[in-house]
Each structure stands twice: as structure tokens, then as C-alpha cells.
Automatic annotation (TrEMBL):
<dbReference type="InterPro" id="IPR046346">
    <property type="entry name" value="Aminoacid_DH-like_N_sf"/>
</dbReference>
<dbReference type="GO" id="GO:0006164">
    <property type="term" value="P:purine nucleotide biosynthetic process"/>
</dbReference>
<dbReference type="InterPro" id="IPR000672">
    <property type="entry name" value="THF_DH/CycHdrlase"/>
</dbReference>
<dbReference type="GO" id="GO:0004477">
    <property type="term" value="F:methenyltetrahydrofolate cyclohydrolase activity"/>
</dbReference>
<dbReference type="GO" id="GO:0009086">
    <property type="term" value="P:methionine biosynthetic process"/>
</dbReference>
<dbReference type="GO" id="GO:0004488">
    <property type="term" value="F:methylenetetrahydrofolate dehydrogenase (NADP+) activity"/>
</dbReference>
<comment type="pathway">
    <text>One-carbon metabolism; tetrahydrofolate interconversion.</text>
</comment>
<keyword id="KW-0560">Oxidoreductase</keyword>
<feature type="domain" description="Tetrahydrofolate dehydrogenase/cyclohydrolase catalytic">
    <location>
        <begin position="6"/>
        <end position="121"/>
    </location>
</feature>
<dbReference type="InterPro" id="IPR036291">
    <property type="entry name" value="NAD(P)-bd_dom_sf"/>
</dbReference>
<keyword id="KW-0368">Histidine biosynthesis</keyword>
<dbReference type="InterPro" id="IPR020630">
    <property type="entry name" value="THF_DH/CycHdrlase_cat_dom"/>
</dbReference>
<dbReference type="GO" id="GO:0005829">
    <property type="term" value="C:cytosol"/>
</dbReference>
<comment type="function">
    <text>Catalyzes the oxidation of 5,10-methylenetetrahydrofolate to 5,10-methenyltetrahydrofolate and then the hydrolysis of 5,10-methenyltetrahydrofolate to 10-formyltetrahydrofolate.</text>
</comment>
<comment type="subunit">
    <text>Homodimer.</text>
</comment>
<feature type="binding site">
    <location>
        <begin position="166"/>
        <end position="168"/>
    </location>
    <ligand>
        <name>NADP(+)</name>
    </ligand>
</feature>
<dbReference type="Pfam" id="PF02882">
    <property type="entry name" value="THF_DHG_CYH_C"/>
</dbReference>
Amino acid sequence: MAGTVLDGKAIASQIEIELAEEVADFIQNNGDGPTLAAVLVGDDPASAVYVRNKRLACDRVGIESKMHRLPAETGEEELLELIAKLNADEDINGILVQLPLPPQIRSAKILDAVHPLKDVDCFHPENVGLLVQGRPRFLPCTPHGVLQILDRSGISVAGKQCVVVGRSDIVGKPVATLLAAKDSPVGPNCCNGTVTVCHSRTSDLAAITRTADVLVAAIGIPKFIKADMVKPGAVVIDVGINRTETGLCGDVDYEAVREIASAITPVPRGVGPLTVVMLMLNTLTAARLQLT
Ligand SMILES: Nc1nc2c(c(=O)[nH]1)N[C@@H](CN(C=O)c1ccc(C(=O)N[C@@H](CCC(=O)O)C(=O)O)cc1)CN2
């Protein structure tokens, strides 16, 4: 029997409802609501869609958003000046710098310049350090989305073999950290996994992925995970978003893998929508942190 489809869109909508109530309470108690500054540099159409979706989500949960759109030829210094202005602006609680940035701009230089208390993507080294030490200030959006899907679907990773395919700073490394952690702000079922990280240089990768009770695919290669790389009954979380000639697909060969997995996230409507709602949660967290 084909595995259960884990509907990320429905889970994200539910979290949005919960969050809208929390934002309304925050506004009632503090007057001003949380505010997110969105910074988009260049003309990448996908990035423009993601930022638009984030601003629409802000509207739905009651967070104010302010847009800063800069041309593709923007230099590093100009962008750093904008970040400094947003850091100093008391009306801004969170700063989102949409990635990727144009090639003339070093992403690390920009992300390091965002004030750690306004770092709602959890990309700043201080926040990554806190996460690794098991005392997170923010949870990174996509990895947090993965945990929420597992938790709200009643899937436990505790004591299970978890394999993460991919070692990016945005997904692979932080999701592995969270799954292996001793405890989790999301819940006791989302931590204490036995985690293996695989990547493009891993030898006999399929032999390792076949050991996974929970397999997280985040390697950025369309349909990379085939059915013969998956243990029957495994839970498969697909974090890939790939635009191909035949349309949008994930890093998992969905139709074939669904036949042997016990549960699987689709693309679209899987992890992606959770990324957006977790950014909303981090913006509220940032506003709370800035009250003191
Ligand atoms: N500053 C950041 N930049 C980027 C991040 C990030 O978390 N912070 N992640 C990705 C892009 N991203 C959010 O920014 C993102 C990607 C996909 C989705 C999503 O909902 N996808 C839909 C499909 C929509 C489509 O592309 O047609 C889905 O999976 O259902 C949301 C956010 C890189 N940059």
C-alpha cells in the first residue's frame, strides 16, 4: 500500500491560525505589532515569489511587513548600509534577506551583519552557535518546518536511524543538529535521533540511505532519491525544490518512493509552506525578545 502523504500545506495553515492568535495577543498587550523587513536584491523570479508569499503570510497572521527591493547590480557596501539602517530601526523586529544574493555580493558578509536579535532566518553565527549548543534563540525556518511536520503527524525520531542527504548551511547541517539534539522546543519526539549526514562525496550513499527509518532529502538534485535507496516503511521528508522542464519536483522520485515509504512529503505542498510560517513565528519571537 502506498505511504501516507504528509500534507505540509494543511499543517502550515493550522500553525498560521495558532500564530495569528498569538500575534493578536502580543498586539493587545504591547500596542505595536511585530514588523518584518524583507530585502530582495535582483530579479530572480522564484525569489520574488517566495518574498511575496512571505509578505502575504505576514498579512494573514497580523505581522506588518516592509519591502526593500534593490537592483541586481547593487554592491555589497550599499546592502550593508541598508542592513545597518534596519538594525538601528526600533520599528523593525526581523530582517529577512532573501537568498540567493547576486554573485558580486558575499552572502556571509551580509548575513553576519544582521543584528542577531533580528536574525529571523537564524543564519547569524551567534544564533547557529546557540542552536548547536542546544540553547536555540530561533529555530531555522526549513529545519523547524521538518520537525513540525514530523511532530504533528505523530512521527517520532527518538532512537531511530535518521539519514540527512545534503550538508547545506540552510537545511542539511541544522536539520541534522536538531534531529540529534538531546531535547527539542518542538517536542520530545523530534530529537534523540541517531543521525548520519550524507553528501555528494559519500561513497555507497544508497547503502546508507537504506538504513534510514527517517530519510531527509536536501541535496538539490531533482528526483535523486530512488525507490531502491529507501528502506520499506521509512518516513521520507523531501526538502528539495527543483524547477525542471517538466515542472516543479523535489529531490525524491515521489511516485516510486511513495510505493514503499510509510509516509512521504510531496513537492509542492510539503516542507515549503512550513518554511514561510516558521519565519512568521520567528518574527514574533524576535518582537518578544526586543521587548526587554
Ligand atoms: N532568506 C532565505 N532565503 C531562502 C530560504 C530561506 O529560508 N530564507 N529558503 C529558500 C526559498 N524559500 C524561502 O525563502 C522557500 C522555498 C519554497 C517555498 C514553498 O512554499 N514552495 C512551494 C512551491 C512554490 C513554488 O516554488 O512554486 C511548495 O513547496 O509547496 C517557500 C519558501 C531559498 N532562499
